[in-house]
Amino acid sequence: MDTLSPKTADYDALRRKLTALLGEKGVVGDAQTLAPFLKEQRGRYEGHTPFMIRPADTQEVSRAVALCAEAGVPLVPQGGNTGLVAGAVPFEQDGALLINLGRMNRVRNVDPTDYSITVEAGCILQSVQQAAEAADRLFPLSLGAEGSCQIGGNLSTNAGGIHVLRYGNTRDLVLGLEVVLADGRIWEGLSALRKDNTGYDLKHLFVGAEGTLGIITAATLKLFPRPRETAVAFIAVTSPEAAVELLARSRAASGDRVAAFELIPRIGLDFALRHVSGIEDPLGEAHDWYVLTELASGQADGSLRDVLENLLATACEDGLVIDAALAANERQAAAFWRIREGLVEGQKFEGGSIKHDVSVPVSKVPLFLERALALVKEMVPGIRPVSFGHLGDGNIHFNLSQPEGADKADYLARWDEVNHAVHSLVVELDGSISAEHGIGHMKVTENAHFKSPLEIEMMQRVKAALDPQNLMNPGKVVPR
């Protein structure tokens, strides 16, 4: 599946054709303008591209892809460039053009009766949420980058976020897709159907494929009733085992109305208190582990708070909960959620951080934490683990801040070594080495190591069938 060499492709001729198609503002070659689009969030990779194209609609994407296919030039699709595995970074050896979809940002249709919304790939996630809210509906996908990430990227990486427990990953929110294939043809797969049992469900090939099979240009997504009442609590628990038990009890007691259930370690809260403005400790004393939970209901009758109060009272009596603070209003609830956001921000000030986005079955989270913490502390004495995240779906962000006083570069040089050790444990516990961030470029080799040869072969066959020239985001997700 080799492409033409960058040395043999006529990029000048291709640029002229693409400029004629897209106009001057649709082709960007200035190095200074390009620079922000070529750097990924964590600063581990910096890309290179002869120039970037910015189509304004699906027809322009289709024609641009066809021109690139004819010239044998690869394309790297990019949304808001908020990814964490270098999936939207073009690398020099591929000679790939960057195709940024940010100009394609229209909300095409909102249907409150059908509980659906159709949007273009370049729509900012927050804009999709707001369009749903304007129709008195909820689009539940919510994550830290929602003010800048784009829905096409969310779909391409099968993004998760804080509400997966209640509503599922992005994959579970998709009804239909519009996709430009590797040869430029448009698959018109937009549909609001809830049932369509007519063969392969093709949309799921492209969700989570990170642009390696085609370019998502639009999507029809599920909407839900807006919550009329929420109850939010910040809870000190005796252990991760107690947190898992509290989750099970919460789901049962609330009629499965748990919208979010986040695990927070004390060290993460300390980092946030130290470095992030506006963070306050909701409880009077320090504890090792906390849970931030939110219940949500379509009825505003005050029952949720009663459910949560009764649940916590019983959990205290049973030795699961040490202390808890229930949000009295929306302002206090937002302050609790600000702590969760501050966990990520606070780590940036504590030196190098080796990060993991892993998942195990919810019941095995305590065992994973016990074994993983012991493992990394033995590998790197003085290491400071910040283990937090979406306990409700088993997705733990196992981030490891460097020992105090350590050399940052020397510490980060051990990234692959530490990753592999942690990933080996995750797989042993029937987990995944990438819960919500994707594979991108960073985890291709690691993914190939842990997946069975048959799984890799099947992925490569799908790739070869839909992208025989290997022009769609080469070197990402699937081993070359």
TrEMBL record:
Kindly indicate whether the keyword Flavoprotein belongs to this entry: yes
Which keywords, in A-to-Z order, does the entry hold?
FAD, Flavoprotein
Keyword match Flavoprotein:
yes
Q: Which family does it belong to?
A: Belongs to the FAD-binding oxidoreductase/transferase type 4 family.
Q: Which GO terms describe its molecular function?
A: catalytic activity; FAD binding
Q: Which cofactor does it need?
A: FAD
Identify the Gene3D superfamilies for this entry: 3.30.465.10, 3.30.70.2190, 3.30.70.2740, Uridine Diphospho-n-acetylenolpyruvylglucosamine Reductase, domain 2, Vanillyl-alcohol Oxidase, Chain A, domain 4
Which InterPro entries does this one have? FAD-bd_oxidored_4_C, FAD-bd_PCMH, FAD-bd_PCMH-like_sf, FAD-bd_PCMH_sub1, FAD-bd_PCMH_sub2, FAD-linked_Oxase-like_C, FAD-oxidored/transferase_4, Oxid_FAD_bind_N
Q: Name one Pfam family in it.
A: FAD-oxidase_C
Provide a GO biological process annotation. respiratory electron transport chain
- Any idea what this protein is called? FAD-binding oxidoreductase
Signal peptide range equals: none
Organism's domain of life?
Bacteria
Domain FAD-binding PCMH-type residue range list: 45-226
